[in-house]
Design a protein that fits this description.
This protein has about 280 residues and is an alpha/beta fold. The chain is built from 10 helices and 13 strands. About 40% of the residues are buried.
Length: about 280
């Protein structure tokens, strides 16, 4: 029976050094030749899915942690932040002197001083992931700087540097109609806040895609490494965590495969008889 497979990108398909194991490419290509469908399911916007990822051979993607769904180059769903909310977010962040970047399918757009202020934050973030990135441009090679048009009607979400945990708490109060979260650390160790469309999850996006495909949930398999991936692992028939992932997702997964660098995707595909 053909399966529909969903794979998170950062920390699951790619290592946190942005290394794509050749074995993962082989596994995905072979699985698709065997009749299975493979989608990435990521927090990235489409603009962050670079050619070397598409060149693996994919049936499509879920992006923005569930706000965007694409299959065979057709957009199935795209929920964006309203222009009114986008203006409110940008104005509020400016008023707090918080640097940020806008995430849309057209690109990543940095605020005026994000590159300079973000350097130490990116260094801390990369160090936590075992990387050694020194600049914002290393982390976001196609980020757009100097953009004057920061009021946009195509935003999936907005990420901003936390000067303190209170910035996150205040954002929750300021934007009750939106989904406000953190990343780059747990609780008060978080480095970034983010603001996106409410009631969006990877699981909901998978449900939308399955309805479009006419596919059954019992034929789904999900791979992830982080807390935000838990809803899709819970939703899909089989949920697989990578060994390099967090303890919380490993505890709830149906099984744990090897780390990304240890051919985790390939080994799991073999175990599941996909290849």
């Amino acid at each position: 029976m053909a399966k529909v497979i969903f794979i998170d990108v950062d920390g699951t398909l790619l290592s946190y050094e942005n290394i794509l194991p050749p074995s993962a490419v082989e596994a995905i290509r072979t699985a698709r030749k065997n009749g299975h469908k493979v989608y990435i399911c990521t927090g990235r916007s489409r603009a962050e899915v670079y050619d070397y990822i598409w060149d693996i051979g994919l049936d499509g993607m879920i992006g923005g942690n569930g706000s965007y769904v694409e299959s065979d180059e057709k957009v199935i769903m795209h929920q964006v932040i309203s222009i009114e909310d986008a203006k409110h977010i940008v104005d509020w962040l400016h008023s707090r002197k918080l640097e940020f970047y806008l995430e849309s399918n057209a690109g990543l757009f940095a605020s005026e001083n994000f590159e300079k202020r973000g350097e130490t934050v990116i260094q801390e973030y990369s160090a936590r992931k075992g990387k050694n990135l020194k600049t914002v441009r290393e982390c976001f090679p196609e980020m757009i700087f100097g953009e004057k048009k920061l009021y946009r009607d195509d935003l999936n979400k907005v990420s901003f540097i936390l000067e303190s945990y209170q910035d996150y708490l205040d954002a929750v109060k300021e934007f009750p109609n939106l989904k406000v979260g953190t990343w780059g650390g747990a609780g008060e160790t978080a480095l970034f806040g983010d603001i996106g469309v409410a009631n969006i999850t990877k699981a909901h996006a998978i449900e939308v895609l399955l309805k479009y495909l006419g596919a059954d949930k019992k034929d789904t398999i999900a791979f992830g490494d982080a807390k935000i991936d838990i809803p899709m692992l819970e939703y899909c028939e089989i949920g697989v965590a990578v060994a390099s992932g967090g303890d919380e997702i490993k505890a709830m997964a149906d099984f744990v495969t090897d780390a990304v660098a240890d051919d985790g995707i390939y080994n799991a595909f073999k175990k599941l008889n996909l290849i």
